[in-house]
Amino acid sequence: MLEIRKTAVSFDERDLMELERIVTDTDEKEALRFLKKCIYDRIAHAQQGRLKSHLDTTNPVEGFVQRNK
Length: 69
Hints:
- This protein is mostly helical.
- Helices cover 59% and strands 0% of the residues.
- It has helices spanning 13-25, 28-47, 60-67.
- The protein is elongated, with a radius of gyration of 19 Å.
């Protein structure tokens, strides 16, 4: 799962040409493949090793109770 935050993705000339072809041809299957390969996978790779699970933190209930005493 990706961390929800602003992320920039760069495209090379080949990626931009492929994107233009997909849009021009209105090719839905290729559009989904492009999104997965050129956007999702790049973002996931950039965030790899930096993702945090809510299970890795302290108990949020304890923090709430301590702040509200």
